C-alpha cells in the first residue's frame, strides 16, 4: 500500500488520541501564548472604562451553561472592571437557563468586591420571548420586570431611582450564545438607537462583523480569544487567557492533519492520473 493510502486510511481513533494529548499538554506544562489585540475588543474595553463614579451600564447575560466556557470569562472580567471603577450595572438574562448561572457569577464577584444588590447592581431576572422583552424594556424596565430576580420591587432599589429605560444607561452589552444577539440588534439598536456591543461564541463571531462595519455595534468580543484580549487589557488574567494554550495546541493539531490529508489526497490523484496515462499508452 502506498504511503498516501496508509495516511488516508488512518483509524480516526488515532486522531482523537493525538488531539486529546494536544489538549492535555498545556495542563502539564505551563505555556504563555501571546494574544494580539483587536480594535473591536479595545472599543468595548474603552466604553466599559467610562462606567465609573456611579454611571450605569446594562449587561445582558444571554447565554446558558453550554456556552459558559467562552462567555463567562467575559462577564467576570467586565463586572470586576466596572466594580473596581465604582460603576453600576443593571443585568438581565434572556436565556431560560441563564438566571441561576448569572446569579452565581454576580453574587460571587459582588461579594469579593464588597458590592451590594440594589445599590451597585440590580439583576432584573429572566422573561421569555426576547424580542418582546427588549421592546418592553425600551419603554420601562418595570414593564417586564416589576420585581427583580429575588422578588424585590425594582422601585425599592435606590440605584433604580430615575432609571427607567435604555436612555438612562450608557450602553448595552449582550453576551449571547444564540439568537438573543440578533434581537438586541433589531429591537434594541434599530428600534431605540441603543449603543450596543456583543460578546459571542467563536463560531458566531463572523456573522456579526458586518454590524461593526455598519456602525450598529460599537464593539465585539469574539469567543475565548475575545475574552483573553479583554482580560489582557483589564490586567486581570482569568479563564480566557488560561484557555488560549488549549485552543492553540488543538487548532495546531487540526491544521497539521488538514495539511497532511490534502497532501495525501493530491499525491494519490497524481499517481492515479499517471497510472491512467501509462495504461492508455500501453
How does this model look, in words?
The chain has 282 residues and is α/β, with parallel strands linked by helices. It contains ten helices and six strands. Strands 3-2-1-4-5-6 form a six-stranded parallel beta sheet, sandwiched between helices. Helix 6 (130-139) runs parallel beside helix 7 and helix 9 packs antiparallel against helix 10 (239-281). The two termini are 23 Å apart. The model has no long low-confidence stretch (mean pLDDT 91).
Task: List its traits.
six-stranded parallel β-sheet; elongated; 282 residues; 6 strands
Approximately how much helix is present in the residues? 40-55%
Order of helices and strands: HHHEHEHEHEHEHEHH
Radius of gyration over C-alpha positions, nearest whole angstrom: 24 Å
Query: First CA to last CA: what distance?
Result: 23 Å
Shape: elongated
Number of strands: 6
Mean pLDDT score: 91
Low-confidence stretches: none
Concise synopsis of the structure shown:
With 282 residues, the protein is α/β, with parallel strands linked by helices.
Topology overview:
Blueprint: H1 3-8, H2 12-28, H3 39-49, E1 56-62, H4 68-84, E2 88-93, H5 99-112, E3 121-126, H6 130-139, E4 172-176, H7 180-192, E5 196-200, H8 209-214, E6 219-222, H9 223-234, H10 239-281
Parallel strand pairs: 1-2, 1-4, 2-3, 4-5, 5-6
Helix pairs in contact: 2-10, 4-5, 4-9, 6-7, 9-10
Amino acid at each position: 500500500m502506498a504511503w498516501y493510502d496508509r495516511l488516508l486510511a488512518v483509524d480516526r481513533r488515532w486522531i482523537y488520541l493525538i488531539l486529546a494529548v494536544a489538549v492535555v499538554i498545556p495542563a502539564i506544562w505551563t505555556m504563555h501564548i501571546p494574544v494580539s489585540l483587536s480594535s473591536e475588543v479595545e472599543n468595548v474595553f474603552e466604553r466599559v472604562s467610562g462606567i465609573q463614579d456611579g454611571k450605569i451600564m446594562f449587561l445582558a447575560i444571554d447565554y446558558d451553561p453550554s456556552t459558559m466556557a467562552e462567555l463567562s470569562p467575559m462577564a467576570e472580567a467586565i463586572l470586576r472592571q466596572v466594580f473596581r471603577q465604582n460603576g453600576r450595572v443593571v443585568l438581565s438574562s434572556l436565556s431560560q437557563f441563564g438566571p441561576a448561572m448569572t446569579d452565581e457569577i454576580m453574587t460571587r464577584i459582588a461579594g469579593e468586591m464588597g458590592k451590594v444588590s440594589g445599590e451597585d447592581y440590580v439583576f432584573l431576572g429572566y422573561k421569555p420571548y426576547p424580542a418582546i422583552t427588549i421592546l418592553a424594556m425600551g419603554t420601562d424596565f418595570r414593564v417586564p420586570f416589576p420585581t427583580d430576580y429575588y422578588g424585590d420591587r425594582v422601585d425599592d432599589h435606590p440605584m433604580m431611582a430615575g432609571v427607567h429605560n435604555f436612555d438612562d444607561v450608557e450602553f448595552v452589552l449582550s453576551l449571547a450564545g444564540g439568537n438573543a444577539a440578533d434581537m438586541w440588534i433589531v429591537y434594541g439598536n434599530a428600534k431605540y438607537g441603543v449603543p450596543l456591543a456583543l460578546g459571542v461564541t467563536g463560531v458566531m463571531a463572523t456573522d456579526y462583523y458586518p454590524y461593526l462595519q455598519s456602525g450598529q455595534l460599537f464593539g465585539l468580543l469574539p469567543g475565548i480569544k475575545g475574552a483573553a484580549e479583554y482580560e489582557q487589557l483589564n490586567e486581570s488574567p482569568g479563564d480566557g487567557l488560561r484557555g488560549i494554550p488549549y485552543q492553540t495546541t488543538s487548532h495546531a493539531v487540526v491544521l497539521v492533519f488538514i495539511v497532511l490529508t490534502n497532501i495525501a489526497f493530491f499525491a494519490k490523484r497524481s499517481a492515479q492520473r499517471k497510472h491512467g496515462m501509462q495504461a492508455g499508452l500501453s
